[in-house]
C-alpha cells in the first residue's frame, strides 16, 4: 500500500482521520458531524478522557479545545499547555470507553519527550537501517489504541519528512521493539536487486513483469530485514533479503478459484501426493532459491505445501486449481528473513 500524505497539516478531524494509516487511529462512525462544546460532555466522559490523556502526557497540563460528535463516537481534541503537542481522543458512546488517544509531537520535541535510552535506541535504529540512505522524520506520535484489531496497540510512531514515505514504530508493549518501513525510488535501489526481483517473477509466472515500487523493511521483533519489490498494481511481489541479497518470497496473482466454496471444493482432496509435490516444485525451488528438495518431507493443507528438512530452510508453496505454484516463501532455519 502506498503511504503518501500521512502528515497532512489539517485541523479538521475528518481530514486527519483519512490521512493516517489504520495503525495510528480507529475510524470514526460515518454520518452527520456536529461540533459541540467541551462543557456538553458529561463529567464521567470528561473524567475518562482526562485520565486517558494524563496516562500519555504525564504531569504536563493540557486543555480540551474541540468536540466533534460523529454519531457513535466523540472526537475530542486539545493541546498540551507547553505547546509541545496536540492530541486527539476518540470516545465510543456505545461501549462507554475511550477508544484511542494520540499525542502528535514535532520532531524537535524528541529531547524533551523521549526517555534518553529510548531516544538513543531510535537514533541507532535509524542510523543502521541503510548506510546509503539517511532517514529523516518530521513528526512523532504517541498512540494508545487498545481495542483495535491490528498490532501494535501501544506505541510511538515516527513519520518521514516531506514526500518521504517512511515510518518507524516503537512497540511499547513488546519491550520497545522497533520496526521501520521506507519507500525508495527505483533509481536509488541497486539495479541488480531490481533485476533479481523481475527474474523471480518471470520464473514463477512465466512472463515478464516490471517492478514499479521498492521498499525496505526491518523488524526487531522477528529479525526480519528485507526489500519488497512490487509491480505497478501491487499484485505481484518479491522479498529479497537486505543482508543476504537472497530471494525469500515470490507472490503472483495466479489464483483461479471464483469463491470460497470453489476453493474448498477444488482442494478438498490433495492435487499432489508428497512425492508429486516435490517433483513439481523441484525446478522452481532451484530457480528461485537455488534449493534442492532432496530429503525434504511434505505436509499438505488444502492448496499449501510445506517442505521441511531438519537444519535446512523450509519452503511453503501454494498452488492454484491447475496445480501451478503461484506463491513460494523461503524460511531460513534461523527464522530470520534477511
UniProtKB/TrEMBL annotation:
- Which key words tag this protein in UniProt? Signal
Q: Would you tell me the protein name for this molecule?
A: PepSY domain-containing protein
Q: Which organism is it from?
A: Paenibacillus terreus
Signal sequence bounds: 1-24
What are the top taxonomic ranks of the organism? Bacteria, Bacillati, Bacillota, Bacilli, Bacillales
